[in-house]
Backbone:
């Protein structure tokens, strides 16, 4: 297949044929295309007028195979993973890794002791071939259907790569599993799909990372369905990308279900991020907590757009929302659009929002104690995001702090 720009039935059919997909997936792709063509572009959030999908290559044919050992991965790809410390992390404190390069899986690894427990962890491409019944049951059905929005429909048509994770009943995975997606090349789209099924009584910690150029439209749909007694915890860090629309959602379907959303975002010069969370309480005695921290600098724009909905069957449920914005200068912006819908009188909902900026008095005080302006700003930022980082394992809290400090370089003065 020669990489072609734009989206059409021909491109999608050829993509599916090259991947050797079953008929049901090929049909789902074409159905998603029909929905995509009917759906309008979002008229809110970041300005998407510069996004011309007809000028993008939405799928590139694979340039490498799939490997079960880092030694077999081509040198250029391997070096990127080595620079990020992923092979070392897998050896020391991960149960398994899936690596994807330009939408195509290049590495799949799961330690033997975890495979013996019945855990399945591989790329989505592999899962369709080896575990078709599981994938077909869950793939873009009730969690994120193509009808959800224009970009979920686009995703259903041209998705490629991503990871699949299944944890059997009662199995508790004591080490995290990680997927890493690498974007390469200008004028391309990447549409990795992640599907996680944690069966009754199981526990798992999944980490996903993605790197690419700064000039990216990051238009994600992330969703969880939580049954009775279950808990989902979202922890997100949004660094880089030029335009972002990202609102992880949790649907609490069973009694006692819980969702925790923690997110930190940074927007610098020329960046507009519209982020937030969505939690829908559809059963009694459910609980949700949303904590969103945003930092804007050099004229960047951060927005929080959140929904908490208490359904008619949500008696005894509780929700708490806190969104805080820190502006590093007078040119930056921080917006908040909370949406709270209550259809049951026997629930508790709390919402708190604060927006502020680093003041000259704070910097002067820190300066009088011997700190430079950059050092003072870094300390203030660390204190601002501390409620999120304290919830993370130490190694990930350190990494998040490091990434944010890299984003903050030159933000003062």
Residues:
């Amino acid at each position: 297949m020669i990489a072609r720009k734009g989206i059409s039935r021909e491109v999608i059919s050829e993509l599916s044929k090259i991947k050797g997909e079953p008929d049901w997936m090929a049909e789902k792709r074409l159905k998603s295309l029909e929905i995509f063509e009917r759906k309008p572009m979002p008229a809110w959030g970041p300005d998407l007028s510069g996004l011309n999908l007809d000028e993008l290559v939405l799928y590139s044919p694979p340039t490498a195979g799939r490997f079960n050992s880092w030694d077999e991965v081509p040198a250029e790809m391997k070096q990127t993973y080595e620079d990020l410390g992923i092979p070392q992390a897998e050896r020391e404190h991960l149960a398994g890794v899936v690596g994807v390069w330009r939408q195509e899986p290049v590495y799949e690894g799961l330690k033997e002791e975890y495979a013996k427990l019945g855990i399945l962890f591989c790329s989505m491409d592999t899962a369709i071939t080896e575990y078709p019944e599981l994938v077909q049951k869950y793939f873009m059905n009730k969690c994120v259907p193509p009808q959800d929005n224009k970009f979920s429909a686009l995703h259903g048509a041209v998705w490629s790569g991503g990871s699949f994770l299944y944890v059997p009943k009662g199995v508790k995975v004591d080490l995290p599993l990680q997927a890493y997606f690498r974007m390469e090349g200008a004028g391309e789209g990447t549409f990795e799909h992640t599907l996680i099924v944690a069966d009754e009584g199981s526990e798992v910690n999944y980490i996903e990372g993605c790197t690419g150029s700064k000039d990216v439209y990051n238009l994600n749909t992330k969703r969880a369905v939580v049954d009775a007694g279950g808990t989902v915890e979202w922890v997100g860090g949004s660094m880089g990308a030029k335009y972002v629309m990202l609102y992880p959602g949790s649907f609490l379907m069973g009694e006692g279900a819980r969702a925790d959303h923690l997110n930190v975002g940074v927007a610098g010069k020329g960046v507009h991020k519209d982020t937030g969370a969505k939690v829908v309480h559809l059963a009694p005695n459910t609980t949700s907590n949303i904590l969103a921290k945003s930092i804007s600098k050099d004229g960047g724009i951060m927005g929080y757009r959140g929904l908490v909905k208490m359904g008619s069957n949500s008696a005894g449920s509780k929700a708490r929302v806190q969104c805080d914005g820190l502006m590093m200068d007078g040119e930056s912006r921080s917006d908040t659009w909370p949406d709270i819908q209550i259809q049951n009188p026997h629930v508790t909902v709390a919402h708190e929002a604060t927006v502020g900026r680093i003041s000259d008095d704070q910097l002067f005080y820190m300066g009088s104690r011997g700190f430079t302006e950059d050092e003072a700003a870094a300390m203030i930022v660390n204190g601002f995001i501390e409620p999120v980082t304290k919830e993370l394992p130490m190694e990930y809290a350190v990494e998040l702090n490091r990434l944010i400090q890299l984003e903050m370089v030159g933000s003062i003065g």
Remarks:
- The longest strand covers residues 258-267.
- The chain has two domains: 1-213, 214-359.
- The chain has a mean pLDDT of 87.
